[in-house]
Each structure stands twice: as structure tokens, then as C-alpha cells.
Amino acid sequence: MKIAHLCVVLTATLALGCDGDLGVGEDGDNNRQNNVNNGNNSNNLNNANNQADMGMNNMPDMGGPTRPSVASGNQLNQDDLFTCTDQVGASPARLRRVMRHEWTRNVGRWIGSEADKNPFDPLPTHQYGTYAENESINESVLDIYLDTVRNGTDGWATRNRYSAGALSNNVDEDSIACMYDEGGRPDATCVETWTRYFLERGAYFRPPTDEEVDALVAFAETKLDAETDPTARRQTLEQIVSAGLMTSGALFRTEMGSGAPDADGRQKLTDWELGNSIAYALDGQGLGSSGVYARFGIGWTGDIEGRLPLIRQAAIDGSISDPAKIEEIVAAYYGGTDMERQDLWLVLRDERKIDRRGEYWMATGILDFFQQWLGYPEVTNAFKDTPSATSFYGNEVHSDYGNLISGYYGHEPTLIQQMDDMIARVVAEDDDVFRNLLTTRTFYVPATAEFAGSSIDASTEQTSYIYGVTDPVQSTRADRWRTLPSTERAGVLTHPAWLSSHALAFENDPNVVHRGKWVREQLLCLNVPDVPITVEAAFDPDTRDQSARQRMTEQVDSRPQECGACHSLMNPLGYPFEIYNHAGYLRQDDHGSAPNGSAMLENMPDPALDGPVRDAVELSEKLADSDYTKRCFIRQTFRYFSGREEEMSDACTMTQMEQAYDDSNGSFSAMLTALFQSDSYQYRVIEEEEEAQ
Amino acid sequence: MITRRQFMQGLAGGAAAALFAPFYNSIFAAGAGCKRYVIFVEGNGIEPRNFLSTAAAADLSAAGGDPNVRHLYRSYNHDSVITTQSSGLSTAPSLGPLATGGIEDKAAVLLGLSSKITGGGHSTEAGALSCTRSPTGSPSAATIDQIMSLIPGVRNGTPFQTVRLGVVGGTKRLNYSTCAFGAKQPAPITCDPTTAFNSLFGSVAQGAGMQAFTERGQLLDFAVTDVNRALATFQGNSWERAKLERYLESLENMVQRQATIAQMGPQLTAVKPGEPSEVALYTSTAPLDRLQAQVDMGTAALLGGLTNVLVVALGTGSANFSLNYESLIGLYPGGDMLGGHDVRHAAEDGAQGYVDLLTAISDRHIGMMAQMARSLDATPEAGGEGTMLENTAMIYMSDNGEKHHSLAEEWPMLLIGGQRLGFNTDGRTVIFPRYNNDNNRQVSNVFNSLGHSAGEDMNTFGGEGAKRIAEGPLSEIWS
């Protein structure tokens, strides 16, 4: 029985402790009956199923009505999805709640700062953090935000160029200087000017409406009236800025579209909506936000127009939906080579670390996409027992592995950053990107030579061993770029960061399943059923001295009736990675046998993938050759940058993305440009209501 | 377009209860006395032997078990439940703190409980408190704290449905690993004591704390007006509109909570813990220091009537248990600080020095729990009978079972208090037959007992389904 939740406001006497007013209203009685006793012979607090009756299992993540279920993502037939007939592309008209790092950048702070402790993490059920569905603000999130919001006010509460929190689009704008004059109270014109400017440049990243300005002006006037000491203006402004950052406009950006609907009921995004959509997609921050602050000794990393001024100007002059303009924008902000790595100033804030990174960079949003798709940042959460077990190095490199994760000693890039740099090179070169991602043997490895004999050599001297690189690596970019043997590594799926992220704590854990499942779901865009609740998915602990392959073969593969339906979908795609251990080291000996990465692929969605594979290197090469997996890559790109799963109505957009990619010899930027130019990206439709439950 | 009322009707129980927090309690308060529930959860295993008293060990030995092996549950050789009355709990390796204030005679130990459904491993995440298989970040069901807080007689007018406090390795302020509002909806645990203080006691804080409370109210009022204005002109459909409505409801509930807390000024002032600016524990890098601050905070929240359901999470979740116990450095073998994961792993491998360290860590945790119990025991139940402890069921358990790489076959538990809720916490130790025996019992039976103590039949709580051994509460500890 669904509860019919009471939606009345009663004048209730506050009941505290054990002796409060315990009056129960009529509706309350009904609700209690439904809620707790359920009117049935079993109580609905009883179990998982009955919790579903309370809505506890199946309730939407943030509560409230949700979009009716539409076939999407991996549920779709890929061949159909890439068949453009008469589908009309459009996304749902929607609100998009700001995400954690977006908010941090919007207020001009760096990732990892106090401001970055805001609570706007995406729902864990979303494949990508850009998904908008059901993202709202519940009471717990609000509770934390109220404690966090002040951390985002520095840039607008003060106007000191040399403050670490200074924003270029504040301190360089003379028209708002009066608001910071501690010599007296600002007049009404000043307050209105400052408010309008702050909302556009610091909160909404679009021109505010008069009503929005009036509301915050009224709040500001109240606060200024209460100000007893103008020298305490900063505190006053902190409250005013906080109020601005609490508004719906600051927390939810609209993608509703405007104008008369076309024949298909679609409305085009406004120029500011489209500009912000592209700005957030490429750079993870609002249009025209500073997103930068003074970096002492180097100067501004931005100007008064904020980051991405091309996009802002295009939103202002209305050229934002011009295909040529979009192409220009993507080309300008996509990525490339930068010996100074200015993109990292806000991220690392330590020149010693920046200098040790690779010279290739990619836009914040593009980096975020690859990190979320490939999932390699998870390496920081993945405990590894004896990281070099079964490798060529025995147990010698335990401390080095820890340092690869933390980067604490020596300022060399972490394992995650090494993979970032490897991907950045492929992306920046922008040629046959998907194939190169899966097959490149050019890895960015940590330098080791300078640490020999130092006080930190135990944590630094063997960090490159995880790649099989045992000769000293000099502290130059050129020497860190290494071409690894063609029998050992090929592309991102053989990078230790990926291998470690998609494995468990022990070298003979069922890592086959985790890695195989990822390949099936993320590279083939096919689903794997959830683990049945009655299945104890664990190896027999008495077989801990066996190899993972033996354990899997004897305990799982030998029981096709019970296990085969699911494991046949994953295991063949996971066995090839058994040439590596759980932390990504190449194995030398696997419990008395030679490392074995062989597998037989059958019933693959692309027949060209069927057949034997020798190991992960060959698997990666086969996957790279497949148009089927390339299309899955296109789908993943669509998901992240569109903020939703693809649907059949996106078929023409899919084909346009593929066409752009193929015509450009595999340019990721061309594919991205095609997406931003597409109807799916630029048009919105207000979906029809279904009867409320 | 559906109305806001329809939207609320469409909400499920857990969310709805949270949304209506201030109203809900007054509407449904049962009035049959206070019922409080406190759950301490230790991440990554509790050594069962640490909870075994001398007397209980003798009874186990007499029943064919071997109390001297570390994973003693594997030696269980009994087919019927062993109950050792007045078992001298404080003689157990980690239960020494129970001796102070006579808490050991108001407590009970449970051994032999299984919860295989959770899957074991480093952590079962929200599975421990929901008795389900719950992958990281994706709970399968609401956890017991959430369920209990929804029972009308439990909420009983308190402003906070549940207070969740804890410590984790690193600097994360929130831990989403252990509690859940419902399926796929993790409930955050506040890991920063200052944040917890401002949220719970800001209304009666000095200077900056009080100012922050007042300004918070003004911000909320402003935002309520803003969102109402946005809703008035919103053109989207109901599920997009729901995002704004959800935010509005959160704001309105926070406004109401502010008002409720403001009315509680005198009673909160009486129990308020030290100010963050005055207490070094709040920002200490030593996890036991921060935990002490959190336990003090939780105790004050209970004493002040801010909540009747409290969770204290001690490094729970697969990514959070690697704590470095700086204040125990003298107990680390060789005096070398080892990461929390490595400590537990070394203990798993049988290194006695690390086994002893884990015993000491549990001892410190239990000490703080006992301190909370003593505070409750020293406080008469306002408007009720007995002491607050007698109306408070406290549980200490782990989030994965018996050890670092758990098989989820043994979930040691300590119960304190709750006598007036029906719990037989009289110093006894109960040892159930081991997993796979017909008389083995499951963690879900304990939670089931909690439900019964609050007047609710929760006989099938948990996701065991056909693997449920027996329905209903545990007669050995509740009647």
C-alpha cells in the first residue's frame, strides 16, 4: 500500500521530551495507520519489500515526481540508435542544479578549498555527474550548504586585488567600487548597480531580471541599515552575497528554451542558456565567472570578462548558435600544448608540481569526462594488499605505490595525474582519438633519478616500476614520456590507474569480474544484470593460495547453470587483464604458472570481436578496431556533455557526431562541436505530464 | 501540472517524513514515554574475542568452543544458545570501561550473530544497518536508524529526526557510506565537529555562533521568498518543478526547525558542549579526539531533546576506516605509525601487536560510549519514569562483522541500557550457535528487537528473504 502522505499544516503544540502535547489529528491517525501498520497483516517497516511500500526502496532520489521512464542509455539497440530517419532531436526542458566543483569555480575558489566542501555532489545513481534528473536540494544538503555558503563570498565581500580570493571581474570594475567604500553608506544607485553586476557576474551568469535585482537590493538595504560600523562592510557583504548564492537562480540554471514552439513543440535555448550550457560542458563553470584569482608572481589568469570570453560575447551578440561560432569556441577552449600549464594553476597551486606535469592540457570538462567515464580516480579509494604481489618486484615497492597514490614525496604527478597527462596528449593531438586512447603506448611515467640516495628514496625511487620502467627516469618532460613494450601495454585499459581502480584488494580477487563488467557496460554499452540478492558473490576463502583464474574457473565458470547467465557476459572480457595484478603491475608469475590473459570472446555485439584474444593488449587493439565500440564512445560523450542518457530521438544527433568524427579522421573536438551544434543540444521540449501517482 | 500538494502526496515515506519533520512529530507523537536509540558503528570489524568476558569464555569452553583462538566463532561447537548471566562484562579485553559507574550490569553482549546477506569484505557500507547487500554509494534500503526515527513514538517532538555524527580518515566533512534514507539515497554523517556544533547548538552559542544562527534564519527567510517567486512563474513540468519545490520544502523545514530550536534555548544552554573556539578537540588531527567531541555532542543532543535517534560512526565505509590513531602511538608496534588499513591488515595476518592495538582502539571507543551511557544514567527521564539510559537502547557494532576481511559470519554486539524498552541488559553474554546452525540468529533479529521495543512489528526487517533463519525479536535480549 502506498502511503497517502498527509499534506496539511496543523497548528501543533511543540512536543519535547516525554511530556509534550501528544495530540493526534484525524489525518494523522490515517497516516499513521498507513505508514506504520499498513492495514495488512504485516507491518510495512518489516523488510525491504515492505519498505518499498513506504517508498523507501523505490522512491526517487530527491523525492517528488520524476520523469516517466523512457528507454535510454544501454537499454537501446545501438544499430537503431545510429540510424537517422525522421527523429526530432531535443532534450527535456529542465533545471540543472549546480554541481560541487561548478559552485567552487563559480565563486572563484580552487578544488580542495573550503568552498569546495559544498554539498552539491551528484546523486550516486547517476553515471555522470552532469546528469540533471532528480538533482535538487534536500534538507541534509541544505544544512551543509548553509555552513558552506560563506566560504564562497570572499571574492565579492572584499575588493582587495592582493587577496587570495580576489576576482578579476570585481576588482577591475570601477562602477561597483562604491559598495566597498568603508567611509560611508552606499546610496541606492550604488546598491542597485552592485547588485545587478554581482548577480550577473557572480551568481547567475546571465542578466538578472528586475525582480531578482529588486529582491536582493531590498535585502542589502536592510543589512546596510543595520550596519553600525562601515568598516565592518565585509561582514555586511558576506551576508548579502550569501543571500544571492541562496537564490534559486544561483543554484539552478534553466534550460527551458523560449519563443514560439516549432512544429514539433520544441523551443530553442536562449542565447544565455546555450552559452552557459557550453561553458559548463567545456569548463565546468558559469558564463563570465572569474573562476580565477590572483596568483602571486604570475598575475591574473583571467580578465574582467571572465573565463571563456568568446562564449560570453557570443551570448551577448546572439551568435552563439551559429555553427561557425561554436566551432570557433570549441577550437579556442578545447585543449592543446602549454608549457606553463596555466590550466593547473587553480588546481595544483604549487609550481613544483606543475613543472612536473606533461605539457598537454584539455578543457576542464573534457578531463572530467574522461575521469568519470574511465573511473580511474577511484584508485585513491582502492586499497591494495601488497601492491606488487606476483610482479617482477616482489614486495619491494609498497611505499612507492602509496606515494603514487598520494604524491606526497617528491612532487611527482600521482598515478591519476599520470593518466590525465597520457589522455591529454591523445586529446590534444586530436587525431584518431578513440583508437589512440585504446592503443597508445606513450605513457607519462614519474621521474625517479633525482631521488636516488635521497631521504625519500624509499617512496620515490621505484615509482616507475609500476609501468615496468626500471631505468632511472630523469626529471624532464621528455624523459617521462616513455614508449612501453608492445607486449605489455596498450592504451588506457592497460594503464595502472585504470587497472587498479577496477580491481579489489588482493591480486587473486575476482578482478576479472570488475574489469570485464566495466568493458561490457562502458565500452560495449551493454548492461549486466545486478547481482541477485541471494548470491554470495565471493570466492571460497579456503582457496586464497590459488590464482584468480583458477578460482574463477573452478568456482564460477564450472557452474554455468547457476553463474553463466551473468558471468559469461563479463569474465571473457576480464580474463585478458589477468596479465596484470590488482594494482596494475605486470605479473611475472601467477601462483606457479605463467601469467595468462587468454580468453575466448563469443557472442559479442560486433562479430569482429569474436574469437580468441591473447591478453589485454590484444583485446584493446581489437576494441580499438571496432566501429561498434567507437559508437559506444560517442554515446558516452553524448551522455556526459548533454547531461543525460541518449534516447532514440537522438538518433540523428548520434549520426551527426559520428559523421563529424569520421570525416575529421577521429577528431574529438569535431565530434564535440557536432554535438553542441545539434538539435538535441540546442532545443528543448516540455514533456507531457503523466497522471500523478 | 500537478500541485504542490500532489507532489507531496507522491513523496515516499522517508523523504516525506524528513520534509515534514517539524510537523510530523507533533502530529504523530505516541506519548507512551521516551524511546531513544543510539548506534555506534565501528568500521572494518570488531574482534569477537574483545567482547568475551572471563565467565562467558568459561561457558563457551565448557560447550566445546575454544575461547583462546582469535577467530573464536569458528570454534563454536554448540547447538543451543549459551547465556552467561552476570558475566562480568568488564573482564572482556575491550569492555573494561563498563566497570565504571556499574554500566556492565546495565549491558549485554551478543556473539554468534551472522549477517551474510551483507556480503562482508572491508565494509558492507549501508548493508550493515539495513541488512541488505548495499554497494558503495547505492544503499539497497533504508537503514535501521532511519526506520526507527520514522516510528511516531520515537520522534516524539524532537527537532532532528536523526543525528548522525562520526569520524573518518582524511578531511571529509560528510560520510555517505553507512546510513540511508532509502534505496539509493545515502544519508550523510557529519564528520566535522564544528559543523555539528553549529547545526545543533548554534542557537545558544556565544558570539559568532549565535550570530550565525540568527543570520541563518534571515537567509532562509530570504530564500523562501525567492523560491516562491520563482515557482510562481515557472513554466516547466511537474518533475522539473519538483526540484524547486524540493528546495522550498527544505528551506521551510529549516525555518521551522530554527523556530523549534529557538524555543528550546534554556534546555539547550544547560547541556551545550564547549564552543568550537574553546575546545581543541574539534579540530584535532587525532581521530579519537574528534570522536570525543562528537560523542560529547551526541550526548548533549540526547540530553537536550534535540533527537531520539543517534548514530555515531567510527571510520565506517570501505574508504574511511584507514585512520591514524596519533594519540595511541605508544601502542603501535615499534612506535611506528601505520595506516589504519595496514594496521587492520597486519592484525588479520595475526601480528599480535596489531591485534592488541585494535583491542585498545575498541576499548577507547567503548569508553566513550560508556561515558555517554553514564551521562544518560545520571539523568532522570523528564516526564517519564526511570533514567534516560533506561529509556535508551544503545548498540555498539561493526559495519562488516568480525574482522578486516570479513565473511560476515560473526557480528559482535554490545547493548547498553533500554531496560524500560524491554531489553534484558543485565550483564549477560549471549552466544548463538555459529553460522549455518539452525539456532544461529542474524543481525536483522536485533534490529527487529529494536522495532518491537518501539511498538512496531518488524519481523522481516532486512533483505534475507529465504535466507532468514527465524523471524522476530531475540527473546534472549528482549522481552
Largest β-sheet summary of chain A = 3 strands, mixed
Question: What is the rounded Rg of chain A?
Answer: 28 Å
Distance between the termini of chain B: 51 Å
Helix count, DSSP H or I runs of 4 or more residues of chain A: 30
In one word, what is the shape of chain A?
Answer: globular
Helical content of chain B (DSSP H or I, runs of 4+): 25-40%
Largest interface: A-B, 106 and 125 residues
> Helical percent range of chain A?
40-55%
Q: What's the number of helices of chain B?
A: 15
- Share of β-strand residues of chain A: under 5%
Strand order in the largest sheet of chain B: 2-10-3-9-8-1-7-4
Report on this structure.
By secondary structure, chain A is mainly α. Among the domains of chain A are: 59 residues, no CATH class; 137 residues, no CATH class; 106 residues, no CATH class. Helices cover 41% and strands 5% of the residues of chain A. Chain A is globular. The two termini of chain A are 12 Å apart. Chain A has a three-stranded mixed sheet. A two-stranded antiparallel sheet of chain A has the order 2-3. Chain B has one domain: 3-Layer(aba) Sandwich (Alkaline Phosphatase, subunit A). With 479 residues, chain B is an alpha/beta fold. In chain B, 37% of the residues lie in helices and 11% in strands.
